[in-house]
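Thread: Uracil-DNA glycosylase, structure

OP (GT): Posting the sequence first so everyone is looking at the same thing. Length is 234 residues per the record. Can we get the structure tokens written out before standup tomorrow? I want them in the notebook alongside the other entries.
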Amino acid sequence: MAEGEVRLEESWKHVLGPEFENPYMSELRRFLVAEKQAGKRIFPKGSEYFRALDLTPLEHVKVVILGQDPYHGYGQAHGLCFSVRPGVRIPPSLVNIYKEMETDLGIRPANHGFLEHWASQGVLLLNSVLTVEEARAASHQGRGWERFTDAVIRAVNEDCDGVVFMLWGSYAQKKAAFVDTKKHLVLKAPHPSPLSAHNGFFGCRHFSKANDFLISRGKEPIDWQLPERVTVNN
């Protein structure tokens, strides 16, 4: 994210461009450069910081799923919340997401955790914090990313109509508390983590509710069934 090198999908660049001129983003940029110069390994790689935005242009957003931080294990994070690259073990929270989808929609769980198929249909898979140091969970919280992703959510709230917000856990629910429920459908449930999924995530039926709402608004529903074979497009 060096000066003058920010590559961002055009619809997002139009609404988020001013954020990059704010002092907090300059501070964040300096922090990331210093961390890398100190030899620390940062995930995901720089070209994937904004992968969620690049795959889901603003005008195509139908569903927003909010995560918190990227996975901090080697080879896991690639810019989409809850998603991992093909060949990487499916994380426990995503296993539970698949279980709920199977109960809700009868969809057989995928044998991988690569969610770009959702993103390409208008599911914005947005983490609140977009980078992390290897093996140090939450190490980049409070550095400015939260303010940037607040701006992303505001843009969806203001510029789009009839979007479904899936807010899993108190963190996501607080972050998107300002979303206009007259314009959008806000679905809330506990986080799908093994620690909390049995407290109401299982049985929430968010996937069928999202599709029912989209259909009621004249929109194409999401095909939540992930393909068996996946291709990574860089």
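GT: Both are above now. Quick notes for whoever picks this up: The longest helix spans residues 23-37. The chain has a mean pLDDT of 96.
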